[in-house]
UniProtKB/TrEMBL annotation, chain A:
Reaction(s) catalysed (UniProt annotation): glutathione(out) + ATP + H2O = glutathione(in) + ADP + phosphate + H(+)
ABC transporter domain residues: 20-267
SUPFAM superfamilies: P-loop containing nucleoside triphosphate hydrolases (SSF52540)
Subunit structure: The complex is composed of two ATP-binding proteins (GsiA), two transmembrane proteins (GsiC and GsiD) and a solute-binding protein (GsiB).
Matches recorded under CDD domains: ABC_NikE_OppD_transporters
Stored PANTHER family: GLUTATHIONE IMPORT ATP-BINDING PROTEIN GSIA (PTHR43776:SF15), TRANSPORT ATP-BINDING PROTEIN (PTHR43776)
Compositionally biased intervals (Pro residues): 285-295
Species: Lichenibacterium minor
Name this polypeptide is given: Glutathione import ATP-binding protein GsiA
Reported function: Part of the ABC transporter complex GsiABCD involved in glutathione import. Responsible for energy coupling to the transport system.
PROSITE patterns recorded: ABC_TRANSPORTER_1 (PS00211), ABC_TRANSPORTER_2 (PS50893)
TrEMBL record, chain B:
Protein name from the UniProt record: ABC transporter ATP-binding protein
SUPFAM superfamilies registered for this protein in UniProt: P-loop containing nucleoside triphosphate hydrolases (SSF52540)
Keyword hit for Cell cycle: no
Subcellular location: Cell inner membrane
GO biological process per UniProt: peptide transport; transmembrane transport
Length: 346, 319
């Protein structure tokens, strides 16, 4: 007997327990070298720890190759991590919590709205697919798909029977959002979900995401290269660089008083939209380095304006400056040997 | 002063059959020597199609109307041979994806040298010396070694620098830039924008810079022309347009910027979506999304006119 609805998901650990706790996440991709060459690996994610609180939006920023998308894919287990633990509301994923039950609670929206929909399914079938796999009767699943379409601003009578190619990019992304919500997840990972949209459409979809978060009590991980969008959406922000966390903290703390020189440079690189504020020199020179050969010591040291010898030797730990604001920089860690590091309190 | 670029009433229509697509409809734009104009618009607004018209890069099936003169030359009238001389020598172009614009099986140095010899003649060694000099000017580190790189051996930012070097190899008077920084990371984007600005000054280039990003336009341009559904809807000095946009679409775009949302919990949005170009409304293309719409807007296309002597706007209810 197929169910008419999905069983409701319960909050287990209460509001104070993080929804998601990630520890020591590692993913290396081996690269083919020559026959006698050294065996090398792209260190896409190399020891990442963070947690996501219930009901918040964690913004993740960084440049290409920083590991933000790999982190997202590891979190929804589109690939298996080499090492690390993921704890969802107190239960270890793949252990106490089965992957099937975990995946119902964590859904993802991708950047490419077209590639992430099956071109041969109507959009109502795409949205109903997940619930049906999880045992909901066909009729009930389709009814829910129609409700969700209406909820994301697509009138079901006009849109339910259409195919992805008949929709605009903004409409397709609304479908992807509806599909992500079909399983009533608690955590939604948005990986550059608005980056391919035109600016006037982007604003509409961001407003929709805020409404849905409030109405369904969702938690978001919002990944974007666009700092302005992250500043608008996020409660806390995590900055990644070459597979590591460079800085993490409350949004205003990170944006107004960045503790890592990379965060500061990234913020300073944003176009100002004011011709009176044009700069003469770029905040950083060079490209983000290749994650195959990260430099020894601090990974940012070759591009850093404050680099000292100690930075080339010592891998900076992610150290708390104040509670809830941490940075992986020797200048922020007392007694590190960097001339700008704070004194050790006597 | 005679303009370096003089585009008058340009129209480009793709496809025949029952539903031809008017991608550009009546675009008129002039650039003085050494001037930088940003063409700002969303996908389908006609900004890239306008840009490509200057080098006649459209497929033969496209119907192109109007006139384009660059440095006195009538571009539409050029013979195939004269067009080949014109491309790269008078007007050159850089693209969003340098990886697609460069040949993967030749080294970057060889590709630049080939362009130099095609347009300026000289020996192989002279052409290579020229390529090396250009690599230094676009600040590619260890230029000599980099000349022997194939495109896949370079990062995105480095490759964009190499493409700029190639575009400047024959001393053009006009540089066309089609979203050259859109695919780049933020810290690299600003480097390339500053490089374009610096080289523009150094070479006295006229530049048309196509972008969808107001911030990028503000970093490089003297003037901006905002496009919507194949037409220029507003044009003026960049500072004026950003400070007080006159067209409701330009105003909507500026108001929708997330960086202005500080403290508010919702963004201001433009309702609806850009129109289907094959099925445009008879009057102003923006009328179905516009808060100031009146009867006149639905029947008549508003002409681009100059209010208050500053810039131009195509709207019956500007301000």
């Amino acid at each position: 007997m197929r169910a008419a609805v999905l069983p409701p998901l319960e909050d287990r650990g209460g509001p104070a327990q993080p929804l998601l706790t990630v520890g020591g996440l590692v993913k290396h991709f081996p690269v083919k070298g020559g026959v006698f060459g050294p065996r090398r690996a792209v260190q896409a994610v190399d020891g990442v720890d963070f947690s996501v609180l219930k009901g918040e939006t964690l913004g993740v920023v960084g440049e290409s190759g920083c590991g933000k998308s790999t982190t997202a894919r590891l979190l929804v287990r589109l690939m298996a991590p080499d090492a690390g633990t993921v704890i969802f509301d107190g239960e270890s994923v793949g252990d106490a919590l089965s992957l099937r039950d975990y995946r119902r609670q964590v859904q993802m929206v991708f950047q490419d709205s077209y590639a992430s929909l099956n071109p041969r399914l109507t959009i109502e079938d795409s949205i109903a697919f997940g619930p049906r796999v999880h045992g909901v009767a066909a009729r009930a699943a389709t009814g829910r798909a129609h409700d969700l379409l209406a909820r994301v601003g697509l009138e079901p009578r006009r849109f339910a029977g259409r195919y992805p190619h008949e929709l605009s990019g903004g409409q397709r992304q609304r479908v992807n959002i509806a599909r992500a919500l079909a399983l009533e997840p608690r955590l939604v990972i948005l990986d550059e979900a608005v980056s391919a949209l035109d600016k006037s459409v982007e604003a509409q979809v961001l407003n929709l995401l805020l409404d849905l978060k409030r109405d369904f009590g969702l938690t978001y991980i919002f990944i974007s290269h666009d700092l302005n969008v992250v500043r608008f959406m996020a409660d806390r922000v995590m900055v990644m660089y070459l597979g590591r966390v460079a800085e993490i903290g409350a949004r205003d703390a990170v944006f107004d008083a960045p503790a890592h020189p990379y965060t500061a440079a990234l913020l300073a690189s944003m176009p100002k939209a004011d011709p009176a504020e044009r700069r003469d020199a770029p905040p950083l020179s060079g490209d983000p380095p290749n994650p195959i050969d990260p430099p020894p010591g601090c990974r940012f040291n070759p591009r850093c304006a404050f680099v000292e010898d100690v930075c080339r030797r010592t891998d900076p730990p992610l150290a708390a400056l104040v509670p809830q604001h941490s940075a992986a920089c020797l200048m922020a860690s007392s007694g590190s040997g960097h001339s700008r590091a704070p004194e050790i309190a006597a | 002063m005679t303009p370096m670029i003089d585009i008058r009433d340009l129209s480009v229509v793709f496809g025949r059959g029952p539903k031809p697509v008017p991608a550009v409809d009546g675009v008129t734009l002039a650039l003085a020597p050494g001037e930088v104009v940003a063409l700002l618009g969303e996908s389908g607004s006609g900004k890239s199609v306008t840009l490509r018209s200057l080098l006649r890069l459209h497929p033969a099936s496209a119907r192109v109307g109007g006139t384009i003169r660059v440095d006195g030359t009538d571009v539409m009238a050029l013979s195939p041979r004269a067009l080949a001389d014109f491309r790269g020598r008078t007007v050159s172009m850089i693209f969003q994806e340098p990886r697609l614009a460069l040949d993967p099986v030749y080294t970057i140095g060889d590709q630049i040298a080939e362009a130099v010899r095609r347009h300026r003649g000289g020996t192989r060694a002279q052409a290579r010396a020229r390529a090396l000099d250009l690599f230094d000017r676009v600040r590619i580190p260890s230029a000599k070694r980099r000349l022997d790189n194939y495109p896949h051996e370079m990062s995105g930012g480095m490759l964009q620098r190499a493409m700029i070097a190639m575009a400047l190899s024959c001393d053009p008077k006009v540089l066309l830039a089609d979203e050259p920084t859109t695919a780049l990371d933020a810290t690299v984007q600003i480097q390339i924008l500053l490089l374009v600005r610096e080289l523009q000054r150094e070479y006295g280039l006229s530049v048309i810079f196509v972008t969808h990003d107001i911030g990028v336009a503000a970093e490089v341009a003297d003037r901006v022309a905002v496009m919507y559904a194949g037409r220029i809807v507003e044009e003026g000095a960049i500072a004026d347009v950003i400070r007080s946009p006159q067209h409701p679409y330009a105003r909507g775009l500026l108001d929708a910027r997330v960086e202005l949302a500080g403290g508010r919990d919702r963004l201001i949005t433009i309702p609806g979506a850009p129109p289907d170009l094959a099925d445009l409304p008879p009057g102003c293309s923006f009328a179905p999304r516009c808060a100031r719409v009146s009867g006149e807007c639905r029947t008549t296309v508003p002409p681009l006119a100059a209010p208050l002597g500053r810039g131009q706007v195509a709207c019956f209810h500007p301000g």
